[in-house]
Amino acid sequence: MNAIELSLFAHRLNAICDEMGAVLRRTALSPNIKDREDYSCALFDAAGELVAQAAHIPVHLGSMAYCMRDVVSRLDWHAGDVVVFNDPFLGGTHLPDITLVAPLFDAGELLGFTASRAHHADVGGVTPGSMGVHEHLADEGVVISPVHWWRQGNEDVSCLADFMQRVRNPDERLADLAAQRAACLSGVRRLLDINSSMPCRTGFAELLHSSEAYGRQAVASIPDGVYRFSDVLEDDGMGTLDLPVCVNIHIAGDSALVDFSGTAVQCRGPVNCPISVTAAAVFYAFRCLMPPHTPQTSAIFRCIELSAAQGSMVNASPGAAVAAGNVETSQRIVDVVLGALAQAIPERIPAAAQGTMNNVIFSGGSQACGWVYYETLGGGMGAHAAGDGLSALQCHMTNTRNTSIEVLEMHYPLRISEYTVRRDSGGKGLYRGGDGLCREWQAMANCQVSLLGERRRTAPYGLYGGGSGKSGRNLLLRNGVQSELPAKASIKLAKGDRLRIETPGGGGFGKGDT
Amino acid sequence: MLLGVDTGGTFTDFVVCDGDRVHFHKELSTPQDPSIAILRGIDTLCRNKHGNDLHLVHGSTVATNAILERKGVKTLLVTNHGMQDLLRIGRQTRRELYNLCPPLPEAWTRPEDCFGLHGRVDASGTLVEDIQIANLAELHHKASGYQAVAVCTLFSFLNPAQEQAAAEALKGLDVFTSLSHQVLAEYREFERASTTFLNAYVGPLVQRYLQRLADGLHAHSLFVMHSTGGVMDIAEAGKHAVRMVLSGPAGGLVAAGEVGRQLGRDTLISFDMGGTSTDVALLTGAARITVEGQIAGMPVAVPMLDIHTIGAGGGSIAWRDAAGLLRVGPESAGADPGPACYGRGGVRATVSDANVVLGRIPESAMLAGNMTIHIDRAQQALETLGRSFALGAEEMAAGVLRVAEENMAAALRVVSVQRGFDPADFALLCFGGGGGLHACALAEALGVHEVIIPVGSGAFSAMGMLSGKRQCDLSQSRHLLPEDPQSMAEAETIFAELEKQAASRMPGLDLQFSRSADVRYAGQGFHLTLPWQAEGAVLAENFVAAHLQAYGHVLGRGLEIMTLRVSAFADTRTLALPPLAMAESDIQPSGCSAVYGAGDVPHFRRAALLHGHRIDGPALLLEDTATVWLPEHWRLEVSLHGHLLLHRVMA
Predict the structure, then answer these.
(1) Looking at the domain assignment, is residue A457 inside a domain?
(2) Residue B369 has pLDDT above 60, yes or no
(3) Pairs across A and B, CB distance < 8 A
(4) Are A207 and A13 in contact (CB under 8 A)?
(5) What is the pLDDT of residues A350-379, one digit of tens each?
């Protein structure tokens, strides 16, 4: 293929991913997919190398680029197969993210795969919403190791029978999974169309080969050297405090080694990361240094080598609890990688963003007629060499939308009494960090709330003399008395109680007070 | 006499229909006050026709431009206390996923321009916290420094007490007031607040502009097209300025629908390619309506035609990226300096330049604004780009067009699939300046069998102005259950109330009403809009059938009604296109020139085409401001009314 044909080929792959996303969003059922857009669609070559992806959530890009090789090499593939999995230690991230993969065969030859990943509202487990604080993966939800759901065009109904029995909304799960399958199959059809005029095998290989340059150029733009940074996760929700997250980044020419030596060993609580999530966070940070139009392939990350000890918090062993690795620890990994890179390229790296997703899960009702409501809250972005940080936004590894207050109050016994920008919470400096948010819920019935957050005792760092962003706060207002709640907590709310969350501000940049 | 006027960036287009004669007219636009160009055009057109009763329908960009250029009036946003940052927080998402250092977005409101109102309505519509007199007095004082006030409180669509109290407090002040329950009585506070805010932000400007225009027109009647393709009088337009954001483009879609009806085609993709962007829309029987529109990053939740804008046009710039791949857009040369071939200092190769280099825009064609074409500049731009790919200017130009057409085809496909359609089932209806050069290639890429280039495609929106009905769309969010007879009775009461409101907004007209409802599975975040059925069981049956058709599955759970909608409309005088004369002999070419890959190809003038004429590609068809490229294996035929029908013929 010449440069023009390869350009056309790359455009067609992107268009297929967009079209798969359109099919998924249109046919899916749950608000997580339709409204919050917590899904991604991707294409892989026969070896499981990512060749194109339409991702709304950064954590999906890196994790799929990293681990599909292992998944596809484990299984026998035939035309008409569809494989399903969510095992964080075999291609997944955390249990609610379920991935479907379908192979592409033409004239008996395996050419590649299409995949769709979506966050499901509940995948069983002890806690409704499958995002609770537990010690074992098995308590977080149903674990599905890569397995054939469809074999050569025939559904294996027994495959998901156990899963469907143990989840809280089986009809919704099935509809969403069917939508994911429809998306994968539409991708397969469109790739077959292309293969007749532009051979996919050659195209994939050439695209991977040429896209490697984006990553290498980004790394080459960083001066050679070793850059270190460390920070902590405040706690694992089970009493272990101040878990160090350390990184040494070795830049040599157009290659980077990202080494997590010194990082805490894996802990009891759910803040552990499978290596795929760690890779996703590292890749995100480097992806931000590449131009906006960079093709989403695994080759752009070939120049980055990861080193993380097996059994550490950033490369946890199978069976570890990981629900918050994806949503909290990933944010801290970004903080330390960017903190290290800031020493090398200060003009391109911002101070720390809020460093948490502030997960809030309300649940209540009876066993027979229960309800679960999940949201994440934005906060401040870090200031940078060119200006102030943005306020009250989802930062780094997530970008899901909020739920309308009116929709929330129409469906759940909750009332929002405040939703404002948290003034003066951004770090001071020549440029100010973005402000966090304040949100206050009043319980209109007895219910339970689980909080999974970070940066309640520590603060998002400033850079070059800029001040830290303010730490977040979780407050309970009961009978006129205000008390502070920890970063990770699960408590009962009585009717009339108020929960107030103030999210962290971003760090400031540079000396001076504006 | 019927007169349609569409104000565009460069030209103001006029279409006049007098008895069975239709003719077109253009004036240079006067952006500082668009009414000058309109009055000038009317003066020219009606010089000898004093006393003639003139019925003018206007597509105006005054509201749209004021929003895009942020030139609205100083506006105070009033929300519940504790929600003053509603517009600032929005949906809590960032625009660019991988930008670590994004610039601060320009805020629509400063913190000091937001006022918190005490009191609270809950989800059942009950006032659960009291409104405070002192707080209202404070509002009165605060608002005196503003030209407009937008009021949006939670659940005001169920109980407008707070908004009404605020309006009462503002009495006696010279401020334009928008209350969210009047602008859009629907749930979702951010979208409603944003819509209400924009309505207040541009309302005073639109009122002044339309009054100026009406004064200049003396006794003639003046109407404005709104975003669903209906027509409203200027009093309505002044109060509901936010309903005008698609005023111009809506005309194009109304006209597209008319052309479809004339030709008996009910599934069309309209395709309007401009300099920096391309507007596409699906027509399935009627034009499709969305309540998820956006302008300048702000949601506009009033109903509007579902027009999707693709960031690719004639001015899109071609470039080589870091890994050596060819890219086209999203950066555009815009109107200034414009493509290299404009000769205004643009040096980077654009889609238009590629068309010029390949001979698909011949030297004899005219560009918009009577500019001449600088072939040498286009050639230079493509040569420069071609060097980085080791390609000659012509091969390079062919590559640029292939990539640009690929981008557009992909966008068209996604737009169709997102709405549940296969583009191959549609005909491509192409109007505006640049579309005719790419229509056949796009049709091939999408598997579309027919391309239609309608009469008056150069002033298509203005033509649509003459086909819009007097229309008013009203809605009311209310949580109701189809299975509950009391709910269904309440729905009847709400519909009757909405119809009464519509009648008071369009007095003295013989109105027809169409009722519909947003229905969904209980607790789900999305709905289907269905024609109303007073019988709950029938409504439920229809929903299940529609859900199966649209999404391929059904669920065993209860249904809920979220919003009731009424469209009221009255027939008005509309345009009827006269038939063309029948051709008695073959059409003769007006010239010929070389086109890359096709040798010497003949030129034809559209003005010379008659019903029954037929042209086989390759050929170029020249209009005043547009060129149509008819490739090999394509045949052009002329319909009874002068629409061009292009089909692929087997070799």
Answers:
(1) yes
(2) no
(3) 202
(4) yes
(5) 999 999 999 999 988 876 677 888 899 999
What ranges in B344-438 are assigned the alpha helix state H? 351-357, 375-389, 393-418
Host domain of residue A85: 3-210
Q: What is the pLDDT of residue B370?
A: 62
pTM of this structure: 0.93
Phi/psi at B299 (5° precision): -65, 140
How far does the CA of residue A271 sit from the closest CA of chain B (Å)?
A: 24
Look at residue A319 and tell me if it is in a domain. Answer: no
Domain edge (last residue) among A182, A210, A238: A210
Per residue in B143-178, pLDDT (tens digit) is 999 999 999 999 999 999 999 999 999 999 999 999
Q: Is B507 on the interface with A (CB under 8 A)?
A: no
Order of strands, edge to edge, in the sheet holding B591-595? B591-595, B599-605, B619-622, B627-630
Q: Does B103 touch chain A (CB under 8 A)?
A: yes
Among A187, A210, A233, give the residue marking a domain's end. Answer: A210
Rounded Cα distance between B341 and B362, Å, is 12
Q: Which chain B residues contact residue A440 at CB under 8 A?
A: 82
Determine whether the interchain pair A3/B326 forms a contact, defined as Cβ–Cβ distance below 8 Å: yes
Res B219 pLDDT > 70: no
Give the three-class secondary structure for B465. helix
By Cβ distance, the residue of B93, B402, B555 closest to A401 is B93
Q: Please provide the distance, in angstroms rounded to a whole number, between the alpha carbons at the two ends of chain A.
A: 55
8 Å CB contact between B590 and B607: no
User: Is the separation of the CB atoms in A364 and A416 below 8 Å?
Assistant: no
Q: Which has more pLDDT, B249 or A431?
A: A431
Q: Are the CB atoms for B334 and B276 separated by under 8 Å?
A: yes
Question: What do you get for the CA distance between the two ends of chain B, in Å?
Answer: 48
B506 CA: distance to closest CA in chain A (Å)? 32
Count of domains for chain A: 2
The pLDDT of residue B651 is 59
Written in H, E and C, the secondary structure of B33-58 is CHHHHHHHHHHHHCCCCCCCCCEEEE
Tens of pLDDT, residue by residue over A131-161, are 888 999 999 999 999 999 999 999 999 999 9
- Does residue A499 lie within any of the structural domains? yes
Q: Which domains does chain B have, with CATH numbers?
A: 68-207 (no CATH), 470-570 (3.30.1490)
pLDDT tier, A74 (very low <50, low <70, confident <90, very high otherwise): very high
If DSSP codes are grouped into helix, strand and coil, which group holds residue B167? helix
A293 falls within a domain: no
Please write the tens of the pLDDT for every residue from A34-44: 777 889 999 99
ipTM of the complex: 0.94
Confidence of residue B367 (pLDDT cuts 50, 70, 90): low
